[in-house]
Amino acid sequence: MAAAAAAAADEAERARGRRAALSFAAIAVVLGLPLWWRTTETYRAALPYADIDGLGQLPFQLAVPVAVVFAPGAVPGDLPKALPFRDVQEMEISVNLRTSITSRYEMIYRSTTAQEEAALHVATAQEADAALRPLQDASLGALTMYVVPETSSLLPQGISVYVGKHRGALVRAGGGLAALRTRLRQLTQVMSFTASSIAAALSDRVPDGQLGPDARRHLKSSLGYEITFSLLNPDPKSHVVDWDIEDAVSRYVQPVLDKLSLVANFSVDSQILYYAVLGVTPRFDKESSSFLLSAHSLPHVINPVEARLGSSAASLYPVLNFLLYVPERSHSPLYIQDKDGAPVSTNAFHSPRWGGIMVYNVEAPASPQASLPLHVDVDMVRVMEVFLAQLRLLFGLSREELPPEFLLESPGSEGLADWELDRLLWAHTVENIATVSTTLTSLAQLLDKIGNIVIKDDVASEVYQAVASAQSAMARLAKGHLHSAFQASKEAVTSSERAFFDPSLLHLLYFPDDQKFAIYIPLFLPMAVPILLSLAKIVRETRQRKKEPTKMD
């Protein structure tokens, strides 16, 4: 009996051990592993991957509202309908297989109102342009074409199209409806966008062979720009240079920047650098008794000078450098030559996406015994004319070659016409949308490739906001709302850059999965070994009991 009791007690103890081992194993598997996995997993908020991929394939539709206003005596006899009526002209712009652009010119044909007719009864086209401005649609991107009789004296002899400073133009009638439509098509492209300007805005998507030579010379679209005017005086012992840069910026540059403030934020500063040389030794020409800088040596001028500027190192935005160089006395006068060896009339050159340099020669003193240093007063009017022309080139506002019957009015003190501002906004809006698509696509590919980067909710929110703003910009472009489309594209760029450059999206902040297991295995293995050994013992005992014959009474 004692032996039987001892065997029963031993069996009960084994049963408790088996239950304890199974309980620990169940707790580890059912609670421990899920809890560990949950507490160590990488949090990744959901992102709109399909919408991001779709941004690169959405078709661009650029709608331009155009009002064609006929003055009395200028209505063609072959109009298809009686005035007023609407017409839509479309044109496809080929970019690549994934991107298609359709330009839609929504034409409204009508007659002049009494006020417009009175405004056209002036002596010159300039006066008509000024008088018609309050009567036009002031919306950004909206154009108004006034068709005047063929015998009208508003346009000079030999001129068929006059483009004013605002968003209006005068077109001479004649040749029927077909000839008029040809002029209007050329005119709308001049005042809005062309295939080349849109291709330049989408230069990252266009094959190199399809781009023009100047496609990548313009400044990339940015939320802000910094402009630095620098006076380089390499020989302060010979020249004391005085330039009234503050007054010059206020009178000549600020009106242009005020108009461009819709495009981006601008900051302006200036500096004077002494003993700063160009880094290229000019060649002395005996015939002209002057020093020359050839065209092939100009690219080597910028790098040594840029090292002295020091403005782009701490800047968040692109820096536009405008340098006025007063050559030292030993290298005066100094002239710049073009590729053909002829002297450049402005004695200046510009570097795409960087800025420009102008050489300002100082007249030699009448007497060799003149005391040094010479006092030099810089003619800021001449200097600013050059710098403003270079600024236009940097923003792609150079006026294209036009037929001889086209006359473009000078923008005057404002530096650019209203339609030129619209032209810049069309290009920058398209470029912003393309930049957002590229940025978000790169971000999505990065996060998809590296699975252990945390995607926080605020990052996901910025991505969703960027996608929504880009889609909104494209929808507004299709409706011809240029201003709101550009603002939406800027919001999309801001959100996409915030998401892309968020500090939490740094791969080195997180452990890879193999390191995670390497850290936790030494902790879990000592606890798991007894449980595993107990489970193995239970399995052996269970198998052994099944093999033992059942005792029969």
Question: Mind explaining what this structure looks like?
Answer:
It is a single chain. This protein is of the alpha/beta class. Helices cover 42% and strands 19% of the residues. The protein has 13 helices and 17 strands. The chain has helices at 2-40, 49-55, 114-119, 125-132, 176-191, 195-201, 245-260, 299-309, 380-394, 418-449, 457-479, 482-500, 513-547; strands at residues 60-70, 85-94, 100-111, 143-148, 161-163, 168-172, 224-233, 239-242, 265-274, 283-285, 290-293, 319-325, 334-336, 348-351, 355-359, 374-377, 406-408. It has a seven-stranded mixed beta sheet, sandwiched between helices. A five-stranded mixed beta sheet has the order 9-7-12-15-14, with helices on both faces. The protein has a three-stranded mixed beta sheet with strand order 10-11-13, with no helix packed on it. α2 crosses α10 (418-449). The model has no long low-confidence stretch (mean pLDDT 84).
